[in-house]
Amino acid sequence: MKIYKVSELIEELNWLLEDTYPYVFVEGEASNVKVAQKGHLYFSLKDEKALIKVVMWASFVYKLPFKVEEGRVFVVSGILKIFGPAGSFQLEARKIEPSGLGGLKLALEQRKKKLEAEGLFSPERKRPIPFFPNKIGVITSPEGAALVDFLKILKECRVALSIYIYPSLMQGKKAGDEIIEGLHYFKEKEVDLIVITRGGGSFEDLMVFNEEFLVREIASSPIPVLSAVGHEVDVTLCDLVADIRAATPTDAARVIKNQLDFVYDKLLEFEKDLIDFISFKLEKELLNLKFYQNYFSFKNLIERIKNLKERINYFINQIKEKEVKYISKKREKFNSLNFFLTKKIYTFTFQYKNKVSNLEIKLKNLSNLLNKKKEKIEGLRRGLLHLNIKRTLKRGFSILKKDGKIIRSSGETREGENIKAELYEGGLLCQIIKKD
Question: What is the pTM for the complete model shown?
Answer without folding.
Answer: 0.47
